[in-house]
Amino acid sequence: DIQMTQSPSSVSASVGDRVTITCRASQGISSWLAWYQQKPGKAPKVLIYGASSLQSGVPSRFSGSGSGTDFTLTISSLQPEDFATYYCQQTNYFPLTFGGGTKVEIK
Amino acid sequence: QITLKESGPTLVRPTQTLTLTCTFSGFALSTTGVGVGWIRQPPGRALEWLAFIYWDDDKRYSPSLKSRLTITKDTSKSQVVLTMIDMDPVDTGTYYCAHRPAAARPLDYWGQGTLVAVSS
């Protein structure tokens, strides 16, 4: 199985801050990586796929980068509605493993 | 508009079998490349991928749970069914089904999830 490791596990930030979350795969996955946002009591929502492609309807303050084993999700200017938990997932190799999540909290 | 909805019991006794149904609309599971997967989430914990079924009936399972899981589809009813045998309290959590438009693409539409508790 490919292990997905996210860091940090939580981050405290203020509205307007730039936030960066990293995800590392235990082996190379090319660009087969997605990022999801999950709010309490809700299903996850895909933000980024193919490591850097923005899902339709997702604000442009979200961006993704990386390839191989190291990936980054960046929120350029944190908004109140962005406080949530974020997960990475490798999307091409079964089992389709998720990272452990990063909780973005209000500072 | 693609929608998915999970249904099934909210409480299961240990050692029993869980059967969950995902009823969907807005797409056909007979369309080339399309698939539906199941994912679960224990309370306060991370997402865990369980199983996946493709348009051509190809099936994939989490290796750690493979012996306990069966996924099937009924294209005419627009349903995907997941069964998990020998339920244990550690299987408590929210179970989601989700749509995948093509191989290597993300899960782009999710159901609302159904909370399953395993307790005697």
Sum this structure up briefly.
Chain A has no helices and ten strands. With 107 residues, chain A is mostly beta strands. In chain A, the strands form two sheets. Chain A has a six-stranded mixed sheet, with no helix packed on it. In chain A, strands 1-3-8-7 form a four-stranded antiparallel sheet, with no helix packed on it.
The count of DSSP E runs of length 2 or more, i.e. the number of strands of chain B, is 11
What's the mean pLDDT score of chain B?
97
Tally of DSSP helical segments of chain B: 0
Q: Which descriptor suits the 3D outline of chain B?
A: globular
Parts with pLDDT < 50 across at least 5 consecutive residues of chain A: none
Q: Determine the structural class of chain A based on helices, strands and strand pairing.
A: mainly beta
- Oligomerization: heterodimer
Helix content of chain B: under 10%
Quick one: overall form of chain A?
globular
Order of helices and strands of chain A: EEEEEEEEEE
The portion of residues forming beta strands of chain B comes to over 45%
Instruction: Give the DSSP E fraction of chain A (strand runs of 2 or more residues).
Output: over 45%
* Order of strands, widest sheet of chain A: 2-10-9-4-5-6
Characterize the biggest β-sheet of chain A: 6 strands, mixed
Radius of gyration of chain B: 14 Å
